[in-house]
Design goal:
The chain folds into 2 domains: about 100 residues, Helicase, Ruva Protein, domain 3 (Orthogonal Bundle); about 50 residues, no CATH class. Helix content is about 65%, strand content about 0%. The chain has 6 helices and no strands. The longest helix has 30 residues. The chain is elongated, with a radius of gyration of 31 Å. The protein starts with a helix and ends with a helix. The relative contact order is 0.07.
């Protein structure tokens, strides 16, 4: 009995995202519904932010799914339906924002941080190598000789 309960709990946990799209939202035409599901995987839930509207159970995600399906049922192309939502909610509604001037920091920021970090490491290593290659001062040589002689005496 316990094993059956665990299997049931696992099945419900895995079925969570699939329950986000309710039957009353779905379009009657299977081709249109397939388009809507594919497009809703590319649109961000504005509440959850890390989920697509297809996976989110938030009320706003439900509203976005309904609007998307209304646009598709009205005859909009995929681009027109997505453009309608982008015009209404901005590029933030896209899970993969376009590469344009206002999103350059988003796309190029990680590369810039990586390059700055690499340059910092290179400068540090160059300075460390320069210090390692510098000759010892007379006082340092005398101290090293004294330590070596003391070590040999032990």
């Amino acid at each position: 009995m316990r094993r059956l309960a665990l299997i049931g709990a696992a099945a419900l946990a895995l079925a969570g995202p699939a329950l986000a799209v309710t039957p009353d939202e779905q379009l009657k035409d299977p081709a249109q519904e397939a388009r809507a599901r594919a497009l809703s995987q590319e649109l961000r839930c504005l509440v959850c932010q890390n989920q697509s509207i297809d996976d989110s159970a938030a009320p706003l995600a439900h509203d976005l799914r309904v609007i998307l399906r209304e646009r598709i049922a009205a005859g909009d192309s995929d681009k027109q339906a997505v453009d309608y939502l982008v015009a209404r909610y901005g590029d933030f509604v896209l899970l993969k924002p376009p590469f344009q001037p206002d999103t350059w920091a988003l796309w190029l920021g990680p590369l810039a941080v990586l390059m700055l970090g690499g340059a910092g490491v290179a400068v540090y290593m160059r300075g460390r190598a320069a210090r390692a290659d510098s000759p010892l001062s007379v006082a340092d040589e005398a101290e090293a000789a004294r330590l070596l002689a003391a070590d040999k005496g032990d």
